[in-house]
Amino acid sequence: MNILNQYTKKTISKNLIILGLILSSIYSCKNQQKQDIKVVKTKPNLLFIFADQYRQASLGFLKEDPVHTPNLDQLAKEGVFFSEAVSNNPLCSPYRAMLMTGRYSLSTGVVENCNSQRTTLGNYLKKDEICFSDVLVDNGYSAGYVGKWHLDGPEPTPPNVKRVWDTWCPPERRHSFSFWYAYGTHNRHNTPYYWTTNAKEDEKTYIKKWSAEHEADVIIDYLNNNKEQRKNDEPFALFWSINPPHTPFKQVPERYRKRYEGMDYKDVLNRPNVQFNDNYELKRGDHGVEKRLDQATDYFASVNGVDDQIGRVISKLKEEGLYENTIIIFSADHGEMLGSQGLMHKNVWFKEAYKIPLIVHYPKKVKPKTDDILLSVPDYMPTILGLMGLEDKIPNVVEGKNYVDLFFDKPVNRPEKQLYFGGKSFASNGDARGFRTKEYTYAVVKHESGEKFHYLYNDAKDPYQMKNIWGENPKLDMTMKNELKQLLTSMNDQW
User: Fold this and answer.
1) Domain-embedded: residue 34
2) What is the pTM of this model?
3) Phi-psi sector, 414: left (phi>0), alpha (psi -120 to 50), beta
4) Tens digit of pLDDT for each residue in 250-279?
């Protein structure tokens, strides 16, 4: 009997051990499942906003331009403001290509704005590029794009035929964006039209509302997701390309103009380098100061309006409980000269066109600060992927650097220069290259005649770049020339 009891006790004990192991395994599996689900749910969302032709000086908290931007000011106060960010090729299409690929203009082939006379030259985003959106979708994100695309090549036209700027992008060229609400490139702010996700080329949606306001409506609807614009069980990555304050400046709602009632354009242009006549001495840059500078108040009014619409979207993120876990980025494709140096618009190395806003807001993980790292556009993709926990998913072809450690006050190898790239051989006003350091800005313009013109500014002593010091110090001139040569050689630029 004792033997039987002993046997029974051993069997029961053994079975209990086995049962315990089974239960432990089940619990472990369930717990792992819970952990996996938790990981998915805590992936950060991404809202990347960039406004067209929005210069850094038009951030209200900098107290430079006479603008009212309370929402962006708050975003910067709570996030990281990169005070020395630039657009390396300060044009619409090149910026977008660099942003999407993490590669410089010479590598993407998008060296000028996309239009029908440049398509045969390969000046468009290639189908086989690995884009920011491709990486995100491959790693469990629902990706959407709202606003101006400007990366496809329209059907080619001969040089003597009027250029076509606007073009429909077919689904197979949208680089994994499943939600598509594309503004095209038509610059009709008050009466815009769009191509929606499933629309064919001849199926445009016409809207009678200021484009920035309408796009904010679309994004708010996207966040509500009542029409299943995205997958509920996936985090979202939404890119919003706002066309204002791009020209035409006059196309802005009257309610934003009221802030500038009774003010002349000379009252609001407070930068000491503003010239009220066209500057023909510079061998690069857009003229039109004498014809367009009186619209300066409209530009600033449009800036106010852009901030207002961004504020509406931020309010929605808060309402839906998404604010804390959404990385919000605000930037711009380039700035606007607005009379500085006697020039209008962009595509030059001067701060008004070259320096752009860059705010990264992620309250869940990143503490507020200002950082003066010399950040370039190709750095955005790898750095943000790093911030999103996708550092190991950065494509090998990316030329930008991952500076994610700076968000957490860890040491990084800070760059000494930022490339300036101005077009290629088919540029309308010649070719240009240069770079910027903490102290100097240097640019060389190769005129269509073959002659080279040099421009050198001591930004530390002359922050408004009012005096070209080239020729005053031969030793410094030679240093600049050699450093530019080394930079271009490292980038396989045969310029």
Assistant:
1) no
2) 0.90
3) beta
4) 999 999 999 999 999 999 999 999 999 999
Burial of residue 411 (CB within 10 Å: 0-12, 13-18, 19+) is exposed
Cα end-to-end distance, the chain, whole Å: 98
Which of 457, 459, 430, 460 is CA-nearest to residue 445?
Answer: 430
CA distance 97 to 92: 9
CA–CA distance, 130 with 123 (Å, rounded to integer): 17
Same domain, 261 and 381: yes
CA geometry: angle 277, 282, 288, nearest 5 deg? 40
What is the domain range of residue 387?
A: 44-410
Name every residue whose Cβ is closer than 8 Å to that of residue 317 and which is 6 or more positions away in sequence: 47, 223, 323, 326, 328
Residue 475 identity (one-letter amino acid) = K
| Alpha carbons 150 and 129: distance in angstroms, whole number | 16
Same domain, 434 and 322: no
Tokens encoding 104: 């410089």
For the record, the structure tokens of 117 come out as 């006379």
Q: Specify the pLDDT at position 51.
A: 98
Contacts of 244 by beta carbon, 8 Å cutoff, 6+ apart? 51, 52, 189, 210, 211, 212, 251, 252, 302, 305, 306
Do 327 and 265 meet the contact criterion of CB atoms below 8 Å apart?
no
